[in-house]
Design brief:
Layout lengths: L14 E8 L1 H11 L12 E7 L5 E4 L7 H7 L11 H7 L7 E5 L5 H8 L3 E5 L3 H9 L4 E2 L3 H6 L5 E7 L8 H10 L1 E12 L21 E2 L2 H6 L6 E10 L5 H13 L3 H21 L5 E11 L1
Parallel strand pairs: 4-5, 4-7, 5-6, 7-8
Antiparallel strand pairs: 1-2, 2-3, 3-9, 8-11, 10-11
Length: 303
């Protein structure tokens, strides 16, 4: 019998087994979609367990040995949609920064947010472990280091005015130490910006979203979990922002909310799904600003 894991947020035995998923369909999807063999990440188990922290509502995948390594991200980076030049959360955070601020971005990818900060003459640097992404940043003459946050803090004397982490926390199994490092990186009164997929949004309908499963993602964040963090860390919640549905996700939104449900009605449902696909896409694209997208950003202030 496997040991019951502690909550990655509270480090307490306050977790329950919420769900189990077979690993084989995930392995097959990676092979068919990307030509990537992720079987090595599931050698210890053919089952992925999802546990829930009862104190925070945070859900996480277990065992942690399923977490992806650098070789996985090197392969995923080849997808042109993996690092997108424009993200909704960039503008949300830019509106709350001052030109005098000194900013650190953890997991800066190819430096698209650092580019925006540079355009505003805001001093900033980034941390990134993907060598291909670092090369892109260097070509744009951005200040980026290949090091973990903990190691970076050991070599820096002064705290930052703000720290940003976009689409990073969901990849990390041991989140408690990482969030403590985020808090340690900023001065008292400084801001911490955390952007993650919102697993209370429409994406929760897609049970085989391979990029929201191990070995890519190790945690399922939502508003409840983000609101709980000030109880366990040295910062207070300032605000939470929700992404409007991007137009490029309109078809995906239709598929998981309507299309998949129509398929349950057999041949007639399959036909209906195809017929309504285009008009639904057009309608959802027009209404996208009124619909909730898949991401969420929480803003905290260091105590």
């Amino acid at each position: 019998m496997s040991k019951q894991p502690k909550s990655p947020i509270t480090n307490l035995d306050n977790t329950i087994l919420d769900e189990e998923i077979d690993a084989l369909p995930i392995i097959n999807v990676y092979k068919s979609e990307y030509g990537i063999d992720v079987g090595k990440y599931f050698k210890e188990t053919g089952k992925i367990k999802i546990y829930k922290c009862l104190d925070t509502g945070y859900r996480f995948y277990y065992p942690f040995s399923m977490v992806g390594d650098g070789s996985l991200y090197d392969l995923l980076q080849k997808d042109p949609y993996y690092y997108m030049p424009q993200k909704w959360e960039y503008d949300i955070v830019l509106d709350q920064l001052d030109i005098k601020d000194d900013i650190l971005e953890v997991g800066c990818g190819e430096g698209y947010f650092l580019d925006k900060l540079k355009e505003k003459n805001i001093k900033a640097c980034g941390l990134e472990m993907n060598k291909g992404a670092i090369k892109e940043c260097e070509e744009k003459q951005l200040s980026v280091s290949e090091e973990l946050l903990k190691d970076h803090l050991n070599s820096r004397a002064e705290p930052y005015d703000a720290i940003c982490s976009f689409q990073v926390l969901e990849h990390i199994p041991n989140v408690r130490s990482f969030i403590n490092d985020l808090s340690s990186a900023v001065r008292p009164g400084g801001k911490i910006f955390i952007g993650v997929p919102n697993n209370d949004s429409f994406i929760k309908q897609d049970k085989l979203n391979y990029l929201n499963l191990p070995p890519h993602h190790m945690g399922l964040w939502n508003e409840q979990a983000l609101r709980s963090l000030p109880k366990y860390f040295n910062f207070d919640l300032v605000d939470i922002f929700y992404e409007p549905l991007p137009k490029y996700h309109a078809n995906y939104y239709y598929k998981v909310n309507i299309g998949q449900k129509l398929l349950k009605f057999g041949l007639l449902g399959k036909l209906g799904s195809k017929i309504f696909n285009l008009p639904a896409y057009i309608l959802l694209s027009l209404l996208s600003n009124k619909l909730q997208g898949s991401n969420i950003v929480a803003v905290y202030k260091k105590r």
